[in-house]
Structures are given as C-alpha cells and as structure tokens.
Amino acid sequence: MQLTNKERLRLAFEAVVTAGIIFLCYFAVFEILNWLVTSFPEVFGDFWIFGNMLADIRNQELWGLTPLVFIFLIIVAGVAIYWRLKRRYHQYELQHIIKELHYIAQGNYTHRIRGKYSGDIGKVVESIHVLVDSTVEAMEEERRIEQSKDELITNVSHDIRTPLTSIIGYLGLIEERRFTSASQATDYVHTAYKKAKQMKALVDDLFEYTTVRQTTTPLEYITFDMGQLIEQMAIDFELEALKKGREIKTRTPDTPIMMRGDTEKIVRVFHNLLSNALKYGKGGTLICINAVQSENNVEVTVSNNGETLPEEAIEQLFERFYRAEVSRSQETAGTGLGLAIAQSIVELHKGKITAEVKEGWTVFTVVLPLNTNGQDER
Predict the structure, then answer these.
(1) What is each CA distance from 216 to 146, 163, 181, 219, 347, in whole angstroms?
(2) At 236, is the pLDDT very low, low, confident or very high (cuts 50, 70, 90)?
(3) Domains of the chain
(4) Element spanning 82, H or E
(5) Three-class SS state of 298
(6) Which part of the chain is the HAMP domain (predicted)?
(7) Helical H runs in the chain?
(8) CA distance 122 to 125
C-alpha cells in the first residue's frame, strides 16, 4: 500500500511524539530511582545485586549513563516506536481498504483493492476479492436465469401461436361453412387435428423439460441391464427405421451391464437420440448403438452416417428450442426440446452427454455411472 504525503507526515510526527514520551518516561524513572537511592541508601545497600550501580546512579545524570545501558535504552525506545508506527500503519491500511470497499459497493464490482498486504490483512483482502467474485458470478447467473426465462416464454409463445393460428383458421372456415364439399371440410378438420397434436407434443415436452431441469426431481431407481435396454430400444425403432431405409445395429458386451437408474427416463434419453438420428440423418443408411462398460461407468454411443452438421450447430444442439434444420419442414418439425431433455435426464443421473462429428458420422456419447445413491423401487 502506498501512503499519501499527509499520512507520511502523520507517521513522522507520531514517531517524534512517541520518542519524546519515551524520553520523558526514562527521565522520570531515572529521577525516581535516584531519589529512592539517595533517600533510602540503607535499604538498597542490602541488595548485593545492585553492586556499585547505586553509587553510580547517585553521582551521575541521565545522559551520563554507561554506553551499554544507553544502547539498551535506545533499543527499547526503537522497539516501542516501531510497534507504535506499525499499529498506525495498519490503521491506515484498514482505512484504505474500507474506502475501496465503499467504491466497490457502489457497483464497481470489477475493481480490486490496490496494494500488497501481508498477514491477516492480506487474507482479509483476498477473502473480499473472492466474495466479490462470487457475488458477481451469482448476479450473472441470476441475469442469465432471467434472460433464459424470457427466451423460454418467447419461444413457447411463438411455437404455440403458429399451430394455434392454423387451428383457429381452419375451424373458423368450418364454423362459417366456407367449404365447398364434405371432403374439403374433412381436410380442414384433419389439418386442425394435426396442428393440435403438434401443440400437445410441445406442451408435453415443455412440461417434461421443466420437470427434469429441477435438481430435486425424484428418480425411481432400480437395477437393470443396460445391454438389454439398448436391444429393446433397437427393436422398438426397427420398423420406423426400415420405412426410412435405415438399419439399426447394436453392439453390447456378452455379459450383462448391470447398473442403477430410472429406466423410464433413461429410455426417454435414447428414444430422443434415435428419433433425432432418424429425423435429421438425411441420406444415412445405418444407425449404430454401442455400449462399453468400464470400472465405474457405462458409455453408450448413438451414431449415424447421415448428413453431418457444422461445428457451430453441434455446439448448440443441447440448447432448448434449438433446431439445426432452419427450414422446420413438416416432416422433421420438432419441439426443439428433445436433446435438452436428454441432457437434463443424464445430468440428473450424474452423467454426461456430448455430441461430435467424427469421420463422417454424427456421434452422441452418453456416460452414466453404474451405481448411484438412489434406492431400489419398493
């Protein structure tokens, strides 16, 4: 810490005053001791430890003390002055810290207390910086949450309004009997019905997304075989894959992969990944699901050899309402919540999900712990 000129003058003045006070104390002690020795020689004479010092005190002035005693007194005075000035210096340090804290409290959270401090004051300054950083981070997180809520409302409003407008429009045509034939009215009803199903899918996904995003969401843990679950998922999607000219292949260990988790939610993870591969893997012919068990985890990859996505799209895949296909065609239209739901479910199981493009394949990797803290379903 750099002292101001005014503070330096105060320290110098305090050093002079302290030295003067010490000298006066020395003089007073010397005079009192001289008076005692002179007035009561028989009392002090009985103590052999004083030796000839009593005679020396009786016959000399303060400034006539022996060099050894004089040096001793100077050292004591120096220590006292240093102790006094150090205390005053620490007070100035605290004043500087308090002044800069007031500046930070006014909203200047990027400001750091200047100067180098040692000892306990240095630890206090470091703790202040950590506290300010954590406060700024908490404020940023709160701001991101608020922004996230606004984006959620905006996206939901947009995605619901589009099919709702169509439903109202087609039902309005029927209500006003603006159709030329019964078959045309049936088409209007069918279109309104499809739009209503889109709305329901969005609402269902939104409800599930908000549910799994909560860290307090309860999970129904049971022990199950991950290999068997993967094989069953492949069977469930086999017919849909054949319709789109795709083949689903699985590769799992010969021995069961026994683990614990909420099977209903884990099934949803792979359901979303397989649906994503079938919807957006244009031109692909193969979807592979591979499972590998390590000591504490199971790693499952879902990959397809269809059209790959650019790197910037891969980085945003798990953001809610993100659709890599800008056109949003009726064939591949989705809510944009599937991968975000999958990520939240995996994180609830203390796992991790990632996506990458590797040698022309789009690869999703899910890593889940074999054991968790959940209890078996009873």
Answers:
(1) 20, 33, 54, 9, 12
(2) very high
(3) 5-116 (no CATH), 154-212 (1.10.287.130), 222-369 (3.30.565.10)
(4) helix 67-105
(5) strand
(6) 94-140
(7) 5-39, 41-45, 53-59, 67-105, 119-175, 182-212, 226-236, 238-243, 263-280, 311-316, 338-348
(8) 5
Q: What is the mean pLDDT of residues 118-145?
A: 84
Percent pLDDT > 90 in the chain is: 28
Is residue 27 within 8 A of residue 37, CB to CB? The reply is: no
pTM of the predicted protein model: 0.58
Is 138's pLDDT higher than 60?
Answer: yes
Length of the chain: 378
Q: Is the pLDDT of residue 193 over 90?
A: yes
Q: What is the DSSP string of 236-260?
A: HTHHHHHHTT-EEEEE--SS--EEE
For residue 21, give both structure tokens: 């006070």
Angle at which helix 182-212 crosses helix 338-348, to 10 degrees, equals 30
**Pairing of β 286-293 and β 247-251:** parallel
Q: Judging by DSSP bridges, how do beta strands 361-369 and 297-304 pair with one another?
A: antiparallel
**Residue 153: pLDDT above 80?**
no
